[in-house]
């Protein structure tokens, strides 16, 4: 029998169970699900041994109808159809225990009714165990989806798996399960954490007497006088009308958490200006039973909006009653009705909408999907569709177009069960639980943008919407002392100048006929050392005073000029290298040119350099000597 709020991974080993459970568990229970079924090899009887796998799906959201051993390590698994409807067989969720360490098996799911699904595009089943509670996808190299001639050319999903630990319970599922008990536990925890952010009420009861939860976010100040200019805007969101589409519950959870955050400025601005009505699970009975698409009596609720009944579809009737009341009210204006689903054959996130004869209404209907596409990196515009198909007349998207007023925009938000492709790439990114919740947060941000553009929501300063990004609270600054510490002076150190090497210098800025300018600098070369002659004021950093031990024959005069005295004969003489071996650049000089007295060719003569001046001086001297001789 089903046990509410029971974790299927809390089973113990087969050898720790009661004796009657280990021996008499070959029957089926729980509305067609296997219940502690032990698969023994042919010819074996008696107590089950380690390695005789035990399958169980008699828990909440579980689905597995039959198990056949077809080989030494190969098993054929048959999914249980939805209750009272044998057409739908796609969702599976079961556990396996009593395994042997390093035991490898092959599981074949042989009766999937939906041939076109994401297993062709790389989706793989999920698995977790008792000691590893985080869901992981089986590697793609271990999963195969193909037509099997043995199974009448039906599509078969086969995957290989190796059990690495004994005394563990392994759970396999189509996608991340989200049970009715998990929703109740989450709402209880959220209600205790944010008691003033939202209101939790029961909208109705199901056929099996389960609650239809309604979450309301309403911090809007009610106006004293209501007219068309100050009506209260409302958004209605519901999900999980199909039980097997569990990712939709994670999207709703992300939306609820984002709106319930008390210190989030965007959430606060939305709650103070818009009313949100959220039904997180519209088909609790189907979710609890582990159905894929139908409720307890086998009706597809998303094809029953146009033929709903209070007795067979009590959740639809309660939701429709609420929508009618607010749509006909003069105080409220329902702007959006969003039905969240999970798609089993397409990737990415996308939106289904409707078409209208009124062009202006249709253009207004396209605004929200465009804003949502700008917020989601995983949005796929190729899969987005707007139509008025008569075959979809029983869906919420098509039914509310006729049942509600023209101001209401109804959409179906679809998220993939597998993942999405990165922009302009063939890389498939698998969704995780947090990835689905991120879509819910992006949905809330899209509502903020929409109501800003429509001038319903005031635009606060950027600093209020984007608080400063500081360090997390774990990194707190070190407490400063109240007494100001004394600043210690840096101790004085003796500075010594590094010796300068001039072995690469071979420059002379002076000539024999000049007594001005920089000191003469001769290089010690292969020809030996030679003396240096310098005229100028003394300088402690000049070349003449560096290495005083070498040039100790300097004689300073009182006019602060120093001259080089000849060395004594006892000292070894160093021969002067030939003048051709020295590089003697011309002395820098300043030439003043009077441009008013220049003639043609005068500028070239004036700037011809020092050589022109020397030749001119020689001509002048030669002329003077000639004239003096004649005289």
From TrEMBL:
Protein name in UniProt: Peptidase M14 domain-containing protein
Biased composition (Basic residues): 468-482, 619-631
SMART domains from the UniProt entry: Zn_pept
GO molecular function, one term: metallocarboxypeptidase activity
Organism: Aedes aegypti (Yellowfever mosquito)
Region (Disordered): 13-36, 464-485, 604-631
InterPro entries per UniProt: Cytosolic_carboxypeptidase, Pepdidase_M14_N, Peptidase_M14
Similarity-based family: Belongs to the peptidase M14 family.
An individual GO BP term: proteolysis
Cofactor(s) it depends on: Zn(2+)
Pfam families (alphabetical): Pepdidase_M14_N, Peptidase_M14
Active site feature: 414 (proton donor/acceptor)
């Amino acid at each position: 029998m089903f046990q509410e709020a029971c974790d299927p991974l809390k089973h113990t080993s087969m050898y720790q169970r009661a004796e009657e459970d280990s021996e008499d568990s070959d029957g089926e229970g729980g509305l067609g699900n296997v219940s502690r079924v032990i698969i023994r090899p042919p010819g074996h009887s008696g107590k089950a041994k380690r390695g005789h796998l035990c399958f169980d799906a008699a828990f909440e959201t579980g689905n597995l109808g039959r198990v056949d051993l077809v080989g030494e390590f190969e098993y054929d698994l048959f999914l249980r159809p939805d209750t009272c409807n044998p057409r739908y067989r796609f969702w599976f969720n079961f556990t396996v225990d009593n395994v042997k360490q390093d035991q490898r098996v092959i599981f074949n799911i042989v009766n999937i009714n939906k041939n076109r699904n994401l297993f062709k595009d790389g989706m793989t089943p999920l698995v977790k165990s008792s000691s590893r509670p985080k869901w992981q996808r089986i590697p793609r190299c271990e999963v195969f989806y193909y037509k099997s001639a043995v199974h009448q050319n039906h599509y078969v999903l086969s995957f290989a798996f190796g059990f690495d630990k004994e005394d563990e319970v392994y759970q396999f599922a189509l996608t991340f399960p989200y049970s009715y008990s998990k929703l109740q536990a989450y709402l209880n925890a959220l209600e205790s954490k944010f008691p003033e952010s939202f209101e939790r009420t029961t909208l109705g009861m199901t056929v099996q007497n389960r609650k239809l939860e309604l979450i309301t976010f309403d911090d809007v100040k009610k106006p004293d006088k209501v007219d068309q200019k100050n009506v209260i805007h409302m958004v209605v969101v519901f999900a999980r009308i199909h039980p097997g589409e569990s990712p939709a519950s994670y999207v709703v959870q992300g939306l609820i958490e984002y709106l319930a955050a008390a210190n989030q400025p965007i959430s606060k601005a939305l709650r103070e200006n818009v009313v949100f009505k959220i039904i997180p699970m519209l088909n609790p009975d189907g979710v609890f039973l582990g159905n894929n698409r139908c409720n307890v009596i086998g009706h597809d609720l998303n094809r029953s909006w146009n033929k709903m009944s209070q007795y067979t579809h009590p959740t639809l009737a309660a939701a429709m009653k609420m929508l009618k009341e607010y749509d006909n009210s003069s105080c409220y204006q329902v702007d959006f009705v969003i039905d969240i689903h999970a798609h089993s054959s397409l990737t990415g996130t996308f939106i289904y909408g409707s078409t209208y004869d009124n062009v202006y209404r249709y253009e207004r209907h396209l605004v929200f999907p465009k804003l949502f596409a700008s917020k989601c990196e995983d949005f796929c515009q190729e899969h987005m569709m707007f139509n008025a198909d008569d075959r979809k007349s029983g869906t919420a998207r098509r039914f509310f177009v006729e049942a509600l007023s023209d101001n209401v925009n109804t959409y179906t938000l679809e998220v993939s069960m597998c993942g999405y492709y990165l922009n302009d790439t063939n890389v498939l990114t698998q969704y995780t639980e947090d990835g689905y919740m991120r879509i819910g947060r992006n949905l809330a941000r899209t509502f903020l943008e929409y109501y800003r553009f429509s001038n319903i929501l005031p635009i606060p300063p950027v600093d209020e919407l984007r608080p400063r990004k500081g360090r997390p609270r774990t990194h707190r600054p070190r407490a400063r002392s109240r007494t100001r510490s004394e600043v210690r002076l840096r101790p004085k150190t003796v500075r010594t100048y590094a010796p300068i090497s001039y072995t690469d210098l071979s420059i002379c800025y002076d000539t024999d006929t000049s007594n001005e300018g920089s000191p003469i600098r001769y290089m010690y070369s292969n020809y030996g050392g030679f003396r240096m002659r310098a005229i100028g004021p003394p300088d402690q950093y000049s070349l003449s005073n560096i290495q005083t031990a070498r040039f100790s024959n300097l004689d300073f005069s009182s006019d602060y000029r120093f001259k080089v005295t000849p060395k004594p004969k006892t000292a070894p003489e160093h021969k002067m290298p030939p003048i051709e071996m020295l590089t003697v650049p011309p002395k820098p000089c300043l030439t003043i040119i009077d441009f008013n007295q220049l003639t043609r060719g005068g500028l070239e003569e004036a700037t011809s350099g020092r050589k022109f001046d020397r030749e001119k001086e020689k001509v002048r001297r030669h002329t003077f000597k000639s004239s003096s001789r004649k005289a």
